[in-house]
Amino acid sequence: MKLFTPLAICGLAALSIQAQASVVIERTIGQQLAAEIVNAAVASCSAQGYQVSATVVDRAGNVQAVLRADNAGPHTLDSSRRKAYTSASIKAPTSKVLETVQKNAAAQNLPMIDDFLILAGGMPIKVGDEVVGGLGIGGAPGGHLDEQCGIAALDSIKAKLN
Which residues is 49 bridged to in the sheet? Predict the structure, then answer.
């Protein structure tokens, strides 16, 4: 019995440490800030004469906010969501992912992943170096223009990403 008690205590302590190690706390973008970002993105593109849709997803790729400008094409909703998902998942701007796919034979199958869209216009939303979500914009006459609107939107809320 004397030997059993210390072994039991050690075993319980090990289980306790193991249980604590399996819980992960992650930060993710909230709905209110997501709504501000899509509003800023659509406004930035609208000011340049582009009718776009903007989507923000959380770090897991779930949609947090979507806004479609008047007269934006119906395809822009899906393209903005998929760009946001891709950038949040890969943790990089989709324009950089596109460059990688074009230059690296090992990355040629990335476009085959479900819901990935390898076109410019998606960018990760970061707090420091931590990705908390993704922003995708679709509908401007070129992915580089979608990306410019996204950068302007993220710059406008930068102070809130603490």
Answer: none
Q: What is the pLDDT of residues 63-92, one digit of tens each?
A: 999 999 999 999 999 999 999 999 999 999
pTM: 0.85
| 72-76 CB contacts, 8 Å cutoff, 24+ apart | 72/139, 73/139, 75/138, 76/51, 76/52, 76/138, 76/139
Catalogue all structural domains in the chain, each as residue range(s) with its CATH number: 27-160 (3.30.450.150)
Assign residue 115 a region: left if phi > 0, alpha if psi is -120 to 50, beta otherwise?
left
Residues 93, 98, 101, 102: is their CA dihedral positive or negative?
negative
**Count of CB atoms within 10 A of residue 110's CB?**
16
Kindly tell me the sign of the dihedral angle through the C-alpha atoms of 100, 92, 46, 115: positive
